[in-house]
Amino acid sequence: MSQQFKEQGGAATMDPGLIRRWLTSKMMSTMSSEARQQKARDKAEQTRAKLKQPHTVEYFHQVDDGYSHLAVQVLDKLAKRYKVQLRCHLVGEATGANAPEPDLLLKLACKDASLIAEQYGVAPPVASPGDDYSLQTVEVKQASAILAGMDDKAFIQHAVTVSMALWSGKADGLLALAGQFSSVSDAEADAALAAGNARRTELKHYSGGMFYYGDEWYWGVDRLHHLEQRLIALGLDNTPGEPLIAPRPDEPHGPLQDDGRITLEIYPSLRSPYTAIAFDRTVELAEQTGVTLKVLPVLPMVMRGVPATMEKGKYILFDTGREARAAGAPFGPCADPIGEPVRRAYSLWAWAREQGKAIEFFSNFLRCAWVEAINTNTDKGMREVVTRTGLSWDDAKSRIGQPGWEEEIETNRLAMYDMGLWGVPSYRVLNEQGEEVLGLWGQDRLWLVAQTIQKLLQNRATSA
Questions:
Q1: SS3 for 134?
Q2: 3-class DSSP state for residue 121?
Q3: Helix 16-32 to helix 310-327 angle, to the nearest 10 degrees?
Q4: pTM exceeds 0.85, yes or no
Q5: 3-59, pLDDT tens digit by residue?
Q6: How wide is the angle at C-alpha 101 spanned by C-alphas 98 and 103, nearest 5°?
Q7: What's the gap between Cα 172 and its chain centre?
Q8: What is the side-by-side order of every strand in the sheet holding 56-61?
Q9: How buried is 404 (Cβ within 10 angstroms: 0-12 exposed, 13-18 middle, 19+ buried)?
Q10: CB atoms < 10 A from the CB of 56, how many?
Q11: Across-strand partners of 237?
């Protein structure tokens, strides 16, 4: 920032927009840093010890959420493995700006949870990811009434049975459980949901299938390894040395190699922290497995009218930093490229591709913005991106900011939405016939992309 002050002639003459951008970037860098994470963890433990409180993990269960269905299946293991008290809450779905595509979200959660269930040794919400199974409102309310009547101990032991009955689609199973357990009235179930929602709001979050411990959130089985490692570091593991309940999946780059007949599509955004920690890993996966990589950029969500709240933004930044460290990917400090930097970069996208430098251009922009905090809103910052890529800045200057790129970027977005996806990075794997084999969202699904490629290659080898 001091250098930017010098370039701008001091604080008195600095552009207010630059100040806002710097403050935003500073907050983003702080939120995602390991130092901030450790400081918050230390403070939480000091507060807990001072108040003489037990180690308490809170779980927030959304009855009709596929991710919650997976998470509820590990509650008993979690309670037995670690010296913690486990408190359970019923919650409803995220609302407002925290759930920009609510209809798509429930379907995606069901499909995605079904795809990853086997990896974590739990039962999927539906038999097949292709099943278009929708829960009936009356059955959801019935399951909620059963769960609302349980204390924490009963919930840990029996909520999985209720969830299995609900997702089986057999109403008689829920009726039997309502007789077996103390099912409460609709009004009492609504009160339990309201209390759970209030607690979640108090702790500044919005989703179901979440675990909370010591001022930190963990989403479902995907992030459970972060929580487990934290509890182990605190000496709370009853079986030291045993494998984690939900270890982070590997991202296999072999042993089988393709000859370009399989296609891997990535739908990235230059303003996405999750894209920033996954893009180079995706390129490496494609190079080492020999598949054809297609990069199909889209506008950032907030630049295409999808709202985002402060609490959601903070969680994403914190989670990105945590995931980057686990994956060994560089991240931070950041210089937020929202708005004009993204538009300027996309105006050079087709030109970079013509020069055979599209992937390098995208990678260098992400690194400058999200790893080195280079201000890509200036010509100096964009020149750094361009020259690192091996392109001519003189040629770029005549093209930068010119219209004509918008149609391609919008076409990519529509293709992504056709898959039922809207977040980035999203992925699609196509077999050699050009048929979709896998379509999903998230940098934390790159392991499944890698496994799918290996399975396709194995099937080809077996057929041959």
A1: coil
A2: coil
A3: 50
A4: yes
A5: 433 333 333 344 444 445 555 677 788 889 999 999 999 999 999 999 999 999 999
A6: 120
A7: 36
A8: 85-90, 56-61, 210-213, 216-219
A9: exposed
A10: 13
A11: 82
